[in-house]
C-alpha cells in the first residue's frame, strides 16, 4: 500500500512539473527573438536552392542587382588641408558633429607636418562627371581627389556647397562614366529595404543593407550652426561608418533615395542608426547650385514647433496633427496670407505635414517667388491661402550668387525711391535703404532711409544700378557712396570694397 502511494505521489509530482513548465513557457517566458528567428528560417526554407544563382531569396529581397548597378558610380573622396603645426584640420569641428572623431573620416596628419587629409564618399549623377557629396566632406579643402571603383583618380573641382543641407557638388573631367539614377524619397516607406554604399575606414566600395527606420528625422546636427538649416533625414539601420559620408543610399532597384550624412553614436562609429538627406531635397539643392550658383530657399517666414499634447494643453487648444505656428514674421509670405500665431499648419500643396522637420523639407523644395497652398487650422476652423515664398532678404525673386554676395556685403535691402521723395528732394532717382543688416553700410554709419544717389561719381537711378557699378569694382579698392536722407541731409561715406 505504501509502495502504491509512493508511485502515485511520484506520478503527481511529475505531472505537476510538466504543467509548471508548460505554464512558464506559455505565460511567463517571452521567446520573442527565438520565435522570430525560427519563423524566418522556415520562411526562407520554402524557397528551393539553385546553385546557378548567387542566392535564392523572396522576390524583392535580392541585393545583388542594386549593388552591381551602384558600386561603380560611388567614388572615394580624399581631401587635403593646410594647417599650422600643432593645430587640427580646418574641418575638425564639423566632423566632430557628424562622427565624433575628425580622423574617423579616414583622416590623419600628412608626413612632415605639411597638413592633414580626410576622406569620404561621393555619388556620380551624370555621365560627364558631376558628383554629389556632403559639405562636411569637402569643407575648406585645399585639394579634392576622387578615385573611382576601377582605381582611376582625378582632381575634382568644387562647383558649390550648401551648408544648410550639408550637400556639395563636385565635377571631374571625363565622359561615359557610370552614374546612379535618382529615385523618389517621398514614396519610400518605413520598413523598406535600402543599401548604403560608400568607403568606410578607406575600405572601398563597401555595401551594407538595412531598412528605412523613420522619415523626416531631426537630430539637431545642422541647426546648431544655422537657423536656415533643413534637417529631415531618412533614418536607416544600414551600417554606416566614418568614410561613408556623401555615399549613396539606394533602393533595391539601385535608384538613389538619399545621401548618407551622419550617424547617431557616442563613439564616432556605428551603433545602430544612420541618417541620409532625402533625394527629393538633394535634387532641388543640386539644381539650384548648377543654375544659380547657390541654393534658392523659399521661406514662409514663420517660427514653428511640433504639435504635442503638452503644447496643446499649454496653449489651451485641442490637439490635432500638424505643426504649431509660434510666430509670424512681419512682411513674410505667411503674414501676407493672414496667418497668425497659434495657427496649426496641416498641409502644403496638399501634402500632409506632421512635424517641423517635415514642413521645412517640403517648403525647402521651392524657390522664392513660387506659390504654395498652405492649409491650416485656427480654433478648429479650416483656412487656406496661397503664399508667395520669399528669400531671406525678404524678396519674392531669385537672387543669383553674384547679386546676393553684393547685398550681403553691403548688408542692406534696397528699393526704388517714391515719387513723393523724388519730388520733395529734387532728385531723379536712387536706391533707398529700407532694411539694414550687418555689413559695410551699417559699419559706415548709414541708417535706414538713406537714398544712394551715386557711387564713385556714377549716377544711381535705381537699385539695379548699385549692383552694376559694384560688380565692376576690383576687390580691395575703396568706393565713395553719396546720397541723401528723406529730411534733406546729405552724406558721403567711403567703403572698403
Explained architecture:
- A hairpin with a 4-residue loop joins strand 7 (157-162) and strand 8.
- The relative contact order is 0.08.
- The chain has helices at residues 2-28, 32-45, 64-70, 92-99, 135-138, 279-292, 309-315, 333-336, 356-364, 401-410, 419-425, 440-443, 463-471, and strands spanning 74-81, 108-109, 116-124, 130-133, 143-147, 153-155, 157-162, 167-171, 193-198, 206-217, 233-236, 248-250, 256-264, 273-278, 302-306, 323-328, 344-348, 351-352, 371-378, 381-388, 412-416, 431-436, 451-455, 458-459, 478-484, 490-496.
- With 497 residues, the protein is an alpha+beta fold.
- The chain is globular.
- The strands form four sheets. Strands 1, 2, 3, 4, 5, 6, 7 and 8 form an eight-stranded antiparallel sheet that branches. The protein has a six-stranded antiparallel beta barrel with strand order 9-10-11-14-13-12. Strands 15, 16, 17, 18, 19 and 20 form a six-stranded antiparallel sheet that branches.
- The chain contains 13 helices and 26 strands.
- It has four domains: 2-45; 61-293, Beta Barrel (Thrombin, subunit H), CATH 2.40.10.120; 302-388, Pdz3 Domain; 401-496, PDZ domain (Pdz3 Domain).
Q: What is the CATH fold-level name of the largest domain?
A: Thrombin, subunit H
Specify the number of helices: 13
**Helix content class:** 10-25%
Oligomer: single chain
Reported CATH architecture of the largest domain: Beta Barrel
What is the count of structural domains? 4
Structural class: alpha+beta
Distance between the termini: 115 Å
Gyration radius from CA atoms, angstroms = 30 Å
CATH class of the largest domain: Mainly Beta
* Main sheet overview: 8 strands, antiparallel
- Tell me the total number of β-strands: 26
Low-confidence stretches: 18-57, 85-90, 100-105
Amino acid at each position: 500500500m505504501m509502495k502504491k502511494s509512493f508511485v502515485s505521489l511520484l506520478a503527481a509530482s511529475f505531472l505537476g512539473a510538466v504543467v509548471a513548465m508548460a505554464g512558464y513557457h506559455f505565460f511567463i517566458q517571452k521567446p520573442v527573438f527565438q520565435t522570430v528567428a525560427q519563423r524566418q528560417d522556415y520562411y526562407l526554407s520554402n524557397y528551393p536552392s539553385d546553385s546557378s544563382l548567387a542566392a535564392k531569396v523572396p522576390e524583392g529581397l535580392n541585393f545583388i542587382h542594386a549593388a552591381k548597378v551602384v558600386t561603380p558610380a560611388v567614388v572615394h573622396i580624399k581631401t587635403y588641408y593646410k594647417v599650422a603645426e600643432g593645430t587640427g584640420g580646418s574641418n575638425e569641428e564639423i566632423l566632430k558633429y557628424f562622427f565624433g572623431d575628425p580622423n574617423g573620416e579616414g583622416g590623419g596628419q600628412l608626413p612632415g607636418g605639411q597638413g592633414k587629409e580626410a576622406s569620404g564618399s561621393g555619388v556620380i549623377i551624370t555621365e560627364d562627371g558631376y558628383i554629389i557629396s556632403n559639405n562636411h566632406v569637402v569643407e575648406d579643402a585645399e585639394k579634392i581627389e576622387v578615385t573611382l571603383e576601377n582605381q582611376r583618380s582625378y582632381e575634382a573641382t568644387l562647383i558649390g556647397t550648401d551648408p544648410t543641407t550639408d550637400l556639395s557638388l563636385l565635377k571631374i573631367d571625363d565622359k561615359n562614366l557610370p552614374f546612379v539614377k535618382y529615385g523618389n524619397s517621398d514614396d519610400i516607406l518605413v520598413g523598406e529595404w535600402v543599401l548604403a554604399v560608400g568607403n568606410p575606414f578607406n575600405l572601398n566600395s563597401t555595401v551594407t543593407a538595412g531598412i528605412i527606420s523613420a522619415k523626416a528625422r531631426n537630430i539637431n546636427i545642422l541647426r546648431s550652426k544655422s537657423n536656415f538649416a533643413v534637417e529631415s533625414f531618412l533614418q536607416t539601420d544600414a551600417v554606416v561608418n566614418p568614410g561613408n559620408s556623401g555615399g549613396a543610399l539606394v533602393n533595391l532597384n539601385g535608384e538613389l533615395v538619399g545621401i548618407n550624412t551622419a550617424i547617431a553614436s557616442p563613439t564616432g562609429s556605428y551603433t545602430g542608426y544612420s541618417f541620409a538627406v532625402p533625394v527629393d531635397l538633394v535634387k532641388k539643392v543640386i539644381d539650384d547650385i548648377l543654375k544659380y550658383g547657390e541654393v534658392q530657399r523659399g521661406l514662409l517666414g514663420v517660427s514653428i514647433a511640433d504639435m504635442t499634447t503638452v503644447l496643446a494643453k499649454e496653449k489651451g487648444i485641442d490637439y490635432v496633427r500638424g505643426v504649431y505656428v509660434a510666430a509670424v514674421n512681419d512682411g513674410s509670405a505667411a503674414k501676407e496670407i493672414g496667418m497668425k500665431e497659434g495657427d496649426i499648419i496641416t498641409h502644403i500643396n496638399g501634402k500632409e505635414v506632421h512635424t517641423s522637420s517635415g514642413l521645412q523639407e517640403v517648403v525647402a523644395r521651392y524657390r522664392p517667388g513660387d506659390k504654395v497652398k498652405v492649409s491650416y487650422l485656427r480654433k478648429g476652423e479650416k483656412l487656406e491661402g496661397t503664399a508667395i515664398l520669399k528669400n531671406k532678404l525678404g524678396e519674392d525673386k531669385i537672387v543669383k550668387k553674384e547679386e546676393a554676395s553684393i547685398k550681403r556685403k553691403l548688408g542692406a535691402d534696397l528699393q526704388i525711391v517714391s515719387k513723393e521723395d523724388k519730388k520733395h528732394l529734387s532728385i531723379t532717382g536712387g536706391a533707398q535703404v529700407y532694411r539694414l543688416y550687418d555689413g559695410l553700410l551699417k559699419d559706415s554709419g548709414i541708417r535706414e532711409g538713406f537714398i544712394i544717389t551715386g557711387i564713385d561719381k556714377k549716377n544711381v537711378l535705381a537699385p539695379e544700378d548699385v549692383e552694376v557699378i559694384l560688380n565692376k569694382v576690383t576687390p580691395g579698392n575703396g568706393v565713395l557712396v553719396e546720397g541723401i536722407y528723406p529730411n534733406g541731409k546729405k552724406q558721403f561715406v567711403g567703403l572698403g570694397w
